[in-house]
Amino acid sequence: xxxxxxxxxxxxxxxxxxxxxxxxxxxxxxxxxxxxxxxxxxxxxxxxxxxxxxxxxxxxxxxxxxxxxxxxxxxxxxxxxxxxxxxxxxxxxxxxxxxxxxxxxxxxxxxxxxxxxxxxxxxxxxxxxxxxxxxxxxxxxxxxxxxxxxxxxxxxxxxxxxxxxxxxxxxxxxxxxxxxxxxxxxxxxxxxxxxxxxxxxxxxxxxxxxxxxxxxxxxxxxxxxxxxxxxxxxxxxxxxxxxxxxxxxxxxxxxxxxxx
Amino acid sequence: xxxxxxxxxxxxxxxxxxxxxxxxxxxxxxxxxxxxxxxxxxxxxxxxxxxxxxxxxxxxxxxxxxxxxxxxxxxxxxxxxxxxxxxxxxxxxxxxxxxxxxxxxxxxxxxxxxxxxxxxxxxxxxxxxxxxxxxxxxxxxxx
Lengths: 260, 143
Description:
A: Lipocalin; nine-stranded mixed beta barrel; 16% helix; 27% strand; B: mainly beta; CATH 2.40.50.1010; five-stranded mixed β-barrel; globular
């Protein structure tokens, strides 16, 4: 084989490889894309409200500020984890603060930060992008179910599908990783975590409430409920916001983060 | 009111002082503030060595002379630019070489650094690092 033929062969192999590498996701081919023109154009009932906008969670002591309070009855394992966390806190230390070392916050914690959340609502999907860590949630509202369990990939924000029930958007999220994932400081999130969020528009479209109902039989008994309010921000957009390990490890707090 | 020793600027004598926290700082949004003593504030004068204007945290490294006159680096972390601009900060508020005074919640174990509360610049301006929430005005609301 001369060099000319060899290079053509290599080029052809690369082209074939490129063609077959398009759209490789575990769910490839399972559903029409949320952004496929055919899916977007499908006739659907009018949506009762539009979440498109920039929003900030209201920090309210009554519902736990950035946390979910009151707490449910924790399992022995979760209570032990929380006790250990609080013991380190009393000693002026942080215990297993994984987001402080750039692990994703994941659901539900990603919803409760200081920074704004950008929401774009389409007929087929509601996309949330949090300014914190520029984390994205895709909530499919085109009628698809969750993927079959054997195709589900563990993620920190999970797999979310939404449906409209009257004036409420009901969002169901499963498939969340139990690795370095916390509901809030000291309380672990397990692989059985299931979150239902009920979104209702309030204040003439200037606020919405989300009622979180969380179950995780490994970590607490029954349903853990909490409602957070989000208010519209008309004069802000989200910005790039990434956690860079080589930067956070220079923060004075970092060496007090006990991670074992 | 507790008394804590403070470190004063290059070449100045150290004077002990303390005052109770002027601000109630919320727990940091990125991680907890357990390692900082929110009940105390301390002042350090020194020279800006570096200033990182960044999300999710800003980081200031200040060159300070300790009680023995030895140069030491103090590191201060604080919230990101989105909150600081509401208090008048910009990316050029602190430049290497600037002589400033820093108020901070110190590290509980006495380490060099803390959570920044405010800075006083050479021109006397005092800028807070306390997060301030933005409240949308009525005229911006959707009708």
